[in-house]
Specification:
With 332 residues, this protein is an alpha/beta fold. 39% of the residues lie in helices and 24% in strands. It contains ten helices and 14 strands. The strands form three sheets. Strands 1-5-4-3-6-7-14-13 form an eight-stranded mixed sheet, sandwiched between helices. It has a four-stranded mixed sheet with strand order 2-12-9-8. Helix 6 links the parallel strand 4 and strand 5. Helix 3 runs antiparallel to helix 9 and helix 4 runs parallel beside helix 5. The chain is globular. Bound molecules: S-adenosylmethionine. The site of S-adenosylmethionine (SAM) has 20 residues, from helix 3.
Amino acid sequence: MEFPLRQGMLLAHTAVMTSARFVQIYREDGAALRQELARGLMGEPASVSPKFLYDALGSRLFDAITELPEYYPTRTERTILDAHGGDIAALVGRGRTLIDLGAGNCEKAARLFDVLAPLRYVAVDISVDYLRQALGCLQSQHPGIEMVGVGADFSVSLTLPPEAGRGERLLLYPGSSIGNFTPDDALRFLRQARSVGGAGGALLIGVDLVKPKPVLEPAYDDALKVTAAFNLNLLRRLNALLGCDARIEDFDHVALYNEGESRIEMHLQARRALTLRWPDGARALAAGERIHTENSYKYTLDGFDRLLRQAGFARTTRWTDERDWFAVFLAA
Ligand SMILES: C[S@@+](CC[C@H](N)C(=O)[O-])C[C@H]1O[C@@H](n2cnc3c(N)ncnc32)[C@H](O)[C@@H]1O
């Protein structure tokens, strides 16, 4: 009697997944999205949310950025995850649903598959086409893990579709993406992450730390100008999504460290006086005037620990690299 039952269980655990399921919530054709873009452009200063940096090309440019010698965050976070994957697994256990927020190429999560042995992997990203491709490849490499892709914009509200499944959840938010939120918005996001994690849930999050300007600024303004291309790609996005008439050659990429705010800022700076026009609006920019496109806040270890506790996480553990440039926090 015992043998067939065991065999059945074994079969259930080694079920072969040939393709990842995909749930697309985010769509780029809505009036709300055009309103959001127009509101940003009409603001003082003009701004565009960094979430628009990521389309299929933007995601590929970001991947190229992570290979640059100046861009330390990806390499450093990888080192920490590789060194402490076992410690992380010892604290959270194996067999959870691993939910990767802003998954990108899914590489960080994939590094943890061996130690965490997730039952299910849910990858969430606004860059829908890119995520589909990345997840398709990953599913074929790991047919034993059930995979679900979710094309969603979590900047306003972090909610997951039922396909994300139940069971104990480990939320992963790597890449120091939390730094793209202002500290107030980061707090709101962390509270939502705690609620999405549910009872017994945990959050593993990568955080970039305060460091000297000569290290920070080149990371966002590299010699090869890949980050410049990543930022300027936003103009193509404005043209495609809003019907705008921006010309890439009219703008320069600017990245600077605002020490008072503890953040890197990226801007697109007009090379000459010009007017951006779209079907139901226009924005004049003086020569040298900027469109603010991204913030990347840098935290201290204690400052981020406080933020996690304010968000309601009672237990936190953290690991850093030997230079204390980057930290990975586990919060429960
Ligand atoms: C800094 S990259 C990090 C990528 C990857 N997780 C890593 O660590 O290398 C930020 C990722 O978040 C995604 N993203 C940005 N804003 C988002 C939003 N509002 N909703 C969902 N995904 C978003 C981007 O498409 C991109 O893949």
